[in-house]
Write a structure and sequence with these properties.
It is a single chain. The chain is of the alpha+beta class. The chain folds into two domains: about 5-75, P-loop containing nucleotide triphosphate hydrolases (Rossmann fold, 3-Layer(aba) Sandwich); about 80-139, no CATH class. The protein has four helices and four strands. It has helices spanning about 40-50, 70-75, 95-100, 115-120; strands at about 5-10, 15-25, 55-60, 65. A four-stranded antiparallel beta sheet has the order 2-1-3-4, with helices on one face. The chain starts with a strand and ends in a 17-residue tail after the last helix. The relative contact order is 0.14.
């Protein structure tokens, strides 16, 4: 999947948060946004996920403007796993990743191909079940 933003201007109400941001997230790579608290990282993520409509600019997924796509089309290409709200203590990281890959119940677990590919994309291994509550990024 190719994800990009072109000349984004983002705000909450009248308060501008981000202005003139353009970015390209490399396909098949793990990317990170770094910056101090309040610098607009979460706001940019919200726009990339179509949770916040830009005042100006465009978010592009695989060549299409995200605002022109239906919710179903976006969900087929993009999954979000926010740090909050807190996940149930009994859930494993494997289950959490699976729910992100398959947001609607299908009665199936990992297919023969999608499970290992998803884990490789995340840079993770499935050797030991890991409770989600013990994973980094919590708290």
């Amino acid at each position: 999947m190719k994800l990009a933003a072109d000349d984004l201007a983002l705000s909450y109400g009248a308060a501008p948060i981000v202005d003139h941001v353009s970015l390209h997230i490399p396909e098949g790579k793990v990317s990170a946004f770094l910056g101090p608290n309040g610098s607009g990282k979460s706001t940019i993520f919200r726009a990339l996920a179509r949770l916040l409509r830009p005042r100006h600019g465009t978010v592009i997924i695989d060549g299409a403007a995200i605002q022109s796509m239906t919710t179903k089309q976006v969900a087929r290409k993009l999954a979000i796993l926010p740090q909050q709200p807190v996940t149930p203590e009994s859930i494993t990281v494997e289950d959490l990743v699976w729910y992100g890959r398959h947001p609607r119940p299908t009665g199936r677990r990992w297919s023969g191909r999608s499970g290992p590919r998803t884990w490789r994309t995340c840079g993770a291994t499935r050797s030991t079940p890991c409770p989600a509550g013990s994973a980094s990024g919590r708290g």
